[in-house]
């Protein structure tokens, strides 16, 4: 599959996951908003009900006290009662004389209709009906005025009392709890009562101050009283935020699992892309390995054919030369195979180092002298600056030599066309470490390739796949060996300017 199609699929699926997460978050936010609005509405309704019950309770208590006082006055003396009865009868007679009696007695039982309704003439019947309606209307107005006066007297008399004396905190708390439960709210609540000027009158026993972000609910008590006689109750719920946001708990698991799927998808895409790159590098490795093995095998085959051809006269010098070619090419093949096998051992952590204390300056100088011929043949020069005062390290001499050799060999492979190679090898001490630098003026490395040059099978492409021989294992081998020696390696490079590798390895301790 082409890389472009992979990216298109990744973008579509990634956008779908993000859209799903967005919709779930919006749904959760709407649910929280609805729960908050419903909660506010229920609390306000409960406060209103509790306030009304408080006012009704005050009115009931006042009426009961009036009736009780009336009963006490009634028991006080029959004479006063007799006078009151005569006065009541007198007032009743006066009312009947003024408005007329709606009932007339017939025998032992009163008639259900006024006497005027027994007339047979239509005109007299209409007049009697009009008189009856007028009588009922006047009686209704009279009774309503009396009831209004009683209510006004109750309210006026109650409002004269002190707000603290009118308040029954236990009754208010009971009504608040009942009203909240009736509206579906069972959360624990705290409340306090204040006068109109902000003075505290009462607070519940387990009252706790409001935390930051909490909004109290306020309800006026005795709303019909003058402003100075009013008070208000302030209510808040310590667990309100948790209760309201708890509704999002049903959506949260879905969001978490969707996010996990999204992360899994991202990791999967990363692994697929990485595996695709590894596959490409392995394909390059196979092609390069085929090319690397083809040349020595062909050379050995030609030499063997010449030795086997009886038609060619072969002197001792010819046998020696052909044997040397076969020996060199066989050694070259063995070296390439061993390099691949070594990387396989590194992957399984089966490599065993033979550590010994070596003089790095002396070892590097030997490698430089051996490698100088190859550099001179390519038209280059090598400069050394071995200034390390403490050059002794605990290392495997063979692998340590291969590390320096590989870095110098890379400098020769990636030299610039038309520019003489200039290679510089340096050593110095930094803290308790020995630093080794291999610097060239070659083609350099792009920034995108710098991150991957130590990966197995990875090779910096320079146009032709086989213009630079190798398997892409050299730098991977170098980094692995440096790490096994408890050291570090870093690289600095600019395209077209050259590359510098710096190795830092702990010095040998006494």
Give a structural overview.
The chain is of the alpha+beta class. The chain has 3 domains: 1-250, no CATH class; 278-345, Orthogonal Bundle (Helix Hairpins), CATH 1.10.287; 352-506, Heat Shock Protein 90, CATH 3.30.565. Helices cover 58% and strands 14% of the residues. The chain is built from 12 helices and 13 strands. The protein has helices at 3-75, 78-99, 122-159, 163-166, 169-182, 240-245, 252-308, 316-347, 360-377, 397-413, 447-450, 474-484; strands at 105-106, 109-110, 190-195, 200-203, 217-221, 231-236, 355-359, 381-386, 392-396, 422-430, 433-439, 488-494, 498-506. Strands 8-10-11-13-12 form a 5-stranded mixed β-sheet, with helices on one face. It has a 4-stranded antiparallel β-sheet with strand order 4-3-6-5, covered by helices on one side. A two-stranded antiparallel sheet has the order 1-2. The longest helix has 73 residues, at 3-75. The radius of gyration is 53 Å and the shape is rod-shaped. The model is unreliable at 78-120 and 463-467 (pLDDT under 50).
Strand content: 5-15%
Helix fraction by DSSP (H/I, runs of at least 4): 55-70%
- What is the number of beta strands? 13
Main β sheet profile: 5 strands, mixed
Average pLDDT reading: 76
């Amino acid at each position: 599959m082409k890389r472009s199609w992979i990216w298109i699929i990744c973008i579509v699926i990634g956008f779908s996951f993000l859209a799903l997460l967005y919709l779930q978050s919006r749904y959760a936010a709407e649910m929280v908003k609805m729960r908050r609005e419903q909660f506010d509405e229920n609390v306000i309704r409960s406060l209103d009900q509790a306030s009304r019950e408080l006012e009704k309770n005050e009115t009931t208590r006042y009426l009961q006290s009036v009736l009780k006082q009336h009963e006490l006055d009634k028991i006080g003396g029959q004479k006063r009662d007799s006078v009151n009865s005569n006065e009541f009868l007198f007032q009743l007679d006066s009312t009947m004389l003024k408005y007329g009696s709606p009932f007339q007695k017939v025998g032992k039982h009163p008639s259900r209709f006024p006497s005027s309704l027994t007339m047979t003439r239509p005109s007299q019947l209409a007049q009697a009906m009009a008189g009856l309606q007028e009588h009922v209307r006047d009686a209704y107005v009279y009774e309503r005025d009396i009831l209004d006066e009683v209510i006004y007297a109750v309210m006026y008399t109650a409002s004269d009392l002190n707000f603290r004396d009118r308040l029954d905190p236990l009754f208010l708390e009971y009504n608040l709890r009942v009203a909240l439960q009736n509206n579906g709210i069972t959360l624990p609540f705290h409340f306090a009562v204040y006068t109109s000027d902000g003075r505290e009158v009462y607070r519940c026993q387990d009252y706790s101050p409001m935390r930051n972000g909490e909004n109290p609910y306020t309800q006026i008590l005795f709303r019909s009283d003058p402003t100075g006689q009013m008070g208000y109750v302030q209510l808040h719920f310590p667990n309100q935020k948790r209760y309201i946001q708890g509704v999002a708990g049903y959506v949260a698991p879905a969001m978490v699992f969707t996010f996990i799927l999204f992360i899994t998808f991202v990791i999967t895409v990363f692994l697929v892309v990485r595996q695709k790159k590894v596959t490409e590098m392995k394909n390059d490795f196979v092609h390069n390995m085929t090319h690397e093995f083809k040349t020595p095998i062909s050379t050995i085959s030609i030499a063997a054919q010449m030795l086997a051809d009886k038609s060619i006269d072969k002197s001792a010098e010819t046998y020696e030369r052909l044997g040397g070619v076969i020996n060199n090419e066989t050694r070259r093949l063995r070296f390439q195979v061993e390099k691949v096998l070594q990387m396989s051992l590194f992957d399984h952590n089966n490599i065993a180092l033979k550590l010994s204390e070596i003089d790095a300056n002396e070892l590097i100088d030997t490698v430089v002298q051996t490698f100088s011929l190859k550099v001179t043949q390519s038209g280059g020069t090598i400069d050394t600056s071995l200034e390390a005062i403490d050059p002794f390290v605990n290392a495997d001499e063979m692998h340590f030599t291969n590390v320096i050799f590989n870095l110098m060999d890379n400098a020769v492979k990636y030299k610039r066309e038309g520019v003489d190679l200039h290679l510089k090898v340096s050593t110095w001490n930094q803290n308790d470490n020995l630093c080794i630098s291999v610097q060239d003026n070659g083609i350099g490395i792009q920034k995108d390739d710098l991150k991957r040059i130590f990966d197995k099978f990875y090779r910096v492409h320079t146009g032709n796949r086989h213009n630079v021989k190798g398997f892409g294992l050299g730098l991977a081998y170098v980094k692995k060996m440096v790490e096994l020696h408890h050291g570090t390696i870093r690289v600095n490079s600019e395209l077209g300017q050259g590359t510098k590798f710096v190795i830092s390895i702990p010095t040998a301790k006494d």
